[in-house]
Amino acid sequence: MAVPGNGISRRLVSWARIKSPWITVYNSGGCNACDIEIIACLMPRFDVERFGILVRGSPRHADILIVTGTPTLKQASRLRRVWEQIPEPKYVIALGACGSSGGVFRGLYQVVDRVESVIPVDVYVAGCPPRPDEIINAVVRCIDLLREDTAHGGKEWRQKKPLPAPVPGEKSPAEVP
Amino acid sequence: MPEVVVPIGPHHPALKEPVNFRVIADGEKIVRLELDLSYNHRGIEKAAEQRNFIRVLPLLERVCGICSHSHATAFAKGVEEIMGLEIPPRARYIRTIIAELERMHSHLLWLGVAAHEIGFNTLFMWSWRDREAVQDTLEEMSGNRVHYGMNEIGGVRRDLTPAQIKTALARLPDLEDRIQKYVGMVNSEETMLIRFRGVGKMSREEALKYGAVGPTARASGVDYDVRRDDPYLAYDEIPWKVITDNHGDVYGRTRVRVGELWESTQIVRFCLENIPAGPVRVEAPKNAPEGEILSRYEAPRGELAHYIRTNGTDKVERIDIRSPTLANWTSVAMCLTGQNLADIPVIVAAIDPCLSCTCRMVVVHRRGGRAVPGTAAGESGHDPKSRQDGWRP
Ligand code: SF4
């Protein structure tokens, strides 16, 4: 996608990306359980490396960012900065109930409630914490998205169009008696 | 040589959780350590004051993802004491079983992480594989791998069926085998001996002076365990012993933790075999009378204290959580002085740090009126208003 030119070099890069997505994990204010479950994914029982998924520490090497926890006010700007460092195309997974919607921490005075209000999110995973198999499924879903996006030549096709502005004088369906 | 400041974190490849170290080093030697722990401050204590006893238990479980049962039990225990409630013996045993399984999974997790820090990844994989057996047992008993949701004021929410007890007992011999192997490895494996011996030494006096708790203190010869010295749940009915060690270094802390692993398997076995029959909960009143209490609990990382004050309603008036890691950070800062820069990961990992429960401070800037968690000088000495990062909530 982001690779200039066409033909073989671009196809090679997107093939490699789909075969081996590298992920980085950012704990933006959760309770650690989601992070522990991600590490459990690397272990002999779940072993995500058989899918070519590698966990890397540096965001500059990553394709997929997994954000755990609801961002705290102090972490939000840092999360944004980490996200900005990831090269395009990048995908974000909001892990767990508190990454998706705030979970039990929703409305606390020191949190932003959801990852979505700081960075765009592509995949949400429910559960508190999600099981390792659900985390693996989320990453696999991300690879599917990546494949579709490559076919469409970018992420834009997925973005919802804003609703058309109401025509003045015309009643909306809700108002029609 | 002039001193240099090495900043590490909050997001760093070597860190699993957000924390900011400012290591002041003179060449390779560490002179001083400054810490900023407040990245994950969420304001749980305040939220706990606004939720009733039923809703606050799931919230307190999520203070920490590793010792979730500890926080819930410490709170439930305290409130029950204020209410004057006696929970049934079967509930006490079930709470003990879950608590010890939690200690096992936490210590196995720690053993893996410590091995990883010294580049001994084989042990990392082994201990995490064995941890899955513990996780399976917990999942069978409670329905979840991490946040068990077993506690409620007045008892536990789920009973153990005979089939569950049978499968849990069937898993134990294998685990005991593996743990025996780890005990042997800690004392004979050359990789671990070289990297752990003499690193991060702390004497008994220092441990007492800096208020270390849990395995960190016990490794320096402090013979103190809340489970024995202020018994709660079923610990006074179970034969077990407190593990201490006199080495005082990372090697000693490893020995204590591996020893505790073994003790935990024995406690779980005893409880499963001798679990009394009967109900698992009693009806608890909706409101707690006025009162205050300091509820102590031996979490996997050390002594956990919940200070609870109630005022006759169905909510707490104030809850203050002192988590064991908070007590142990001072000892880390002290242990690191004079050590090599390369020893930071090992010494920090040796207290089994867990940051989600540690952060707590909020300082209001009088100038801007904005609440900034962390040091009095804002974020590592910078004025938050001068940040140029563009995004602000
Ligand atoms: S979703 Fe649940 S388990 Fe995951 S970080 Fe949030 S509170 Fe913890």
Structural topology:
The complex is a heterodimer of chains A (about 180) and B (about 400).
Chain A: H1 8-19, E1 22-27, H2 33-41, E2 54-55, E3 64-68, H3 73-85, E4 91-95, H4 96-100, E5 123-125, H5 132-152
Parallel strand pairs in A: 1-2, 1-3, 3-4, 4-5
Chain B: E1 4-8, E2 20-26, E3 29-36, H1 44-49, H2 53-61, H3 68-83, H4 89-117, H5 121-142, E4 151-152, E5 155-156, H6 162-188, H7 190-196, H8 204-209, H9 214-218, H10 226-229, H11 250-273, E6 291-299, E7 302-310, E8 316-322, H12 324-336, H13 344-350, E9 362-364, E10 371-373
Antiparallel strand pairs in B: 1-2, 2-3, 4-5, 6-7, 7-8, 9-10
Helix pairs in contact in B: 2-3, 4-5, 4-11, 4-13, 5-6, 6-11, 7-11
The complex binds iron/sulfur cluster.
Keywords:
heterodimer; A: 177 residues; alpha/beta; Rossmann fold; 5-stranded parallel beta sheet; 5 helices; 5 strands; globular; B: 393 residues; alpha+beta; Cytochrome-c3 Hydrogenase, chain B; 2 domains; 3-stranded antiparallel beta sheet; 13 helices; 45% helix; binds iron/sulfur cluster
CATH topology of chain A: Rossmann fold
Q: Structural class of the secondary structure composition of chain A?
A: alpha/beta
Low-confidence stretches of chain B: 374-393
Question: Oligomer, anyone?
Answer: heterodimer
The structural domain count of chain B equals: 2
Helices and strands of chain A, in order, run as HEHEEHEHEH
Class computed from helices, strands and strand pairing of chain B: alpha+beta
Q: List bound small molecules.
A: iron/sulfur cluster
The beta-strand count of chain B equals: 10
Name the CATH superfamily classification of the largest domain in chain B: Cytochrome-c3 Hydrogenase, chain B
What strand order characterises the main sheet of chain B?
Answer: 1-2-3
Biggest protein-protein interface?
A-B, 47 and 49 residues
Describe the global form of chain B: globular
